[in-house]
Design a protein that fits this description.
6-stranded antiparallel sheet; 3 helices; 33% helix
């Protein structure tokens, strides 16, 4: 009895390797995204109904503590790494995790609000990097940087 048995590893074996490679890329990309999201110091509010309600609540609470710029749609962010912010800029010297940062782009103002204390932590102007301080080939810095407000004596 002569039995010829042939085992082929053509397309099926190759497609498994391709599938594993795609899976590895997806897992690696997902891990990178999670790491980068967790590694930020300020977390911008997501564009959802919950985020819109959070922004509206923050505007109402801060509006009771100070006069807000009119006709300027603020951007809301939540402080997630206070120590990193404190090391980066003096504007954030008294910030704590969970504080809210309201940025008014048209009015060039930034407000740090502490919901836990119901107090303003800091208010200051937004200053962009001057054109002379840019590296060659870079465009003007469009991300505003809050400056500390002067202390009253």
């Amino acid at each position: 009895m002569n039995k010829n048995i042939t085992i082929r590893r053509g397309a099926a074996g190759g497609s498994m390797i391709v599938s594993l490679a795609i899976l590895a890329i997806l897992v690696g990309g997902g891990a990178y995204w999670v790491y980068s999201v967790r590694n930020t110091s300020i977390s911008p509010a997501q564009n959802s109904e919950e985020a819109k309600q959070e922004l509206a609540d923050a505007v109402v609470k801060v509006g009771k503590l100070m006069v807000l710029p009119e006709g300027d749609e603020p951007i809301l962010a939540t402080v997630t790494d206070a120590e990193k912010l404190k090391a980066e800029q003096p504007f954030y010297a008294m910030v704590e995790n969970g504080d809210k940062v309201l940025v008014f782009p048209k009015s060039q103002k930034a407000v740090i609000y502490s919901p836990s204390k119901n107090k303003l932590v800091n208010v200051g102007p937004i200053v962009s990097a001057p054109q002379g301080q840019q590296s060659q080939g870079q465009e003007a810095k469009t991300t505003p940087t809050p400056e500390p407000s002067p202390k009253k004596q």
